[in-house]
Amino acid sequence: MNMSSDVWNQLMVESSQVYIDESTGEVRSPFANTTIEKLPDKILLNIFSYLTHREICRMARVCKKWRVIAYDTRLWTAVSLRPEISGLHVGSLESLLALISIRFGPSLRYIELPIELITHTVLHELANKCPNLTHMLLDFSTAMQLHDFSEMQAFPTKLKYLCICLSEVIFMEGFMRKIYNFINGLEILHLIGTYEKVEEEEEEIYEVINVHKLKSATPNLRVINLYGINFIDDSHIDAFSSNCIQLECLAVNYCSKVTGSTMKTLFQRSKRLRCLLMNQTSLVSEHVMQVDWEKTALQELDITATDLSTECLVDMLTRIPSLRFLSAGQINGFNDSVLKAWMEQGNPRSLVALDLSHSDNVTDDGLHKFLSRYGHQLWGLSLSGMPHITDQLWQSILPILTNIKIIIMGTQERLGVNIHVDQLMDGIANNCPNLERLELRWDPENLRFSDKSQKAIDILRVKCLKMRCLVLSDGRYYEVVKANFERADRMTVVRTTTSCRCSNYYLLYNYKDLIFN
Fold first, then answer.
1. CA distance 186 to 255
2. Where would I find the F-box domain in this sequence (predicted)?
């Protein structure tokens, strides 16, 4: 709890002052008769700030004092009204309008609205009653029909962040043309498609939002995230680059129609572009090789699961001046010769994050040579989904990974060899004091541990004090580790691979800007 140091010190002093009850002869504390009702409102407000809004609403039913504190606008600066994503359920528009006026007001900075609550009346109230609203998410993903926006005359004008979850079949132009004049100050734009909902049968694709008109209304964008949109292609990237000269980060992950044909123009126009994320796109090697990589400011690149050739990868990596983040897993063309050429002709000296997961053509010898040279500077390393990379390679490189913060290792495939996890944990604990996130994806049946496992886990827990997340496949070893951390009152650290995944994306400069949902 971020209690002020003065308040905390005073509590510590008072709690240490005990006295003897003359009537009973018992040693008592001055807080012996203190109950939570007697805590100052400021302390209660601080405690309430750690609760979800659902929990705060339940606390409001306890007593009048707690009700007043629960309705303090300082607890309502960021609100989600999407109950399916841990938000509040609002039963009617009238209830929401009352909330906006009474509870949100000038304190509101961030709001998420589902389709049923996106009306011109609600948006008008937000514009009038919440002058400091800067972040907004509008979820149209389940829409079958839009509300009537013909009478909409107002929209929040101070937005810096706008996220729109698109529908597959609803055209957005009727809504968008009403807000174009209000969103000139946008710096971060998310357009979220329906990639995860698409069925295997091919259906007709609709361009449900006019990107060419949208780019004219948003000249100040720094971060653009076009995620899983089935109609996005290179012409849309070209459109944004023609008007957004401040662009620093462009993400088009899971936009399968992107081939890279306008990538050269993109870098010529966007001189500040330092982050390009193109996971699962249809990049063509010839287009990528046409880019003047030497003249770019690029520092972060994700080309995971693309079909780039070995020649293209060598050409690109040896010409990018200063790459700090590379994600290049699931690429058949990525092999030892690429790593060798990068070491000999390129400049990996700025590299802090490397993800080569599912790279079947990279050998453990090739990885060992590269990591022996550059492992000391890495903050994040992901080598998962590679059956030939076992604990032996990790044991040999752990002493080099002295600055590592994120490690992802193992494969879910059943192996013919066993993983001696006790020695692995011991090596991590003794060599990686800055570790924050660790994920072991090995099948539980491949993990071998002994009765002395508790000692290895204890050492890891005590030495890696910055550990926020330890992810394991559900099984007997997971239960052992989870129980160990829970006994030390670190309840949220250990998780399963079914509910949590680690990623080097935490190390991106614009990671917080790229978060949606």
1. 23
2. 33-79
19-20 and 27-28 beta bridge pairing: antiparallel
Q: Report the alpha-carbon distance of residue 192 to residue 16 in Å, rounded.
A: 55
Which 3 state secondary structure label does DSSP give 123? helix
What is d(CA 79, CA 88) in angstroms, rounded to the nearest whole number? Answer: 8
How do residues 451-484 score in pLDDT, each as one tens digit? 778 999 999 999 999 999 999 999 999 999 999 9
Report the chain's mean pLDDT, rounded to a whole number: 89
| Cβ atoms of residues 288 and 308 within 8 Å | yes
Instruction: Please report which helix (H) or strand (E) contains residue 28, including its range.
Output: strand 27-28
The answer to whether 155 and 123 have CB atoms below 8 angstroms apart is: yes
Q: How far is CA 314 from CA 70, 284, 403, in A?
A: 58, 15, 27
Q: Is 250 helix (H, G, I), strand (E, B) or coil?
A: strand
Return the closest-CA partner of residue 433 out of 474, 388, 463, 469. 463
- Note the pLDDT of residue 2: 46
Q: How many alpha carbons lie under 13 Å from residue 99 in its C-beta half-sphere?
A: 22
User: Cβ atoms within 10 A of the Cβ of 463, count?
Assistant: 16
| pLDDT computed for residue 278 by the predictor | 97
Res. 83 pLDDT band, cuts 50 70 90? confident
Cα dist from 431 to 86, 249, 428, whole Å = 38, 34, 5
Q: Is 498 exposed, middle or buried (CB count within 10 Å of its CB: 0-12, 13-18, 19+)? A: exposed
- Residue 211 makes CB contacts below 8 A (sequence gap 6+) with 232, 236, 239, 240
Q: At how many degrees (to 10) do helices 453-463 and 476-487 cross?
A: 50
User: Which pLDDT does position 22 carry in this prediction?
Assistant: 62
Compute the residue count for the chain: 517
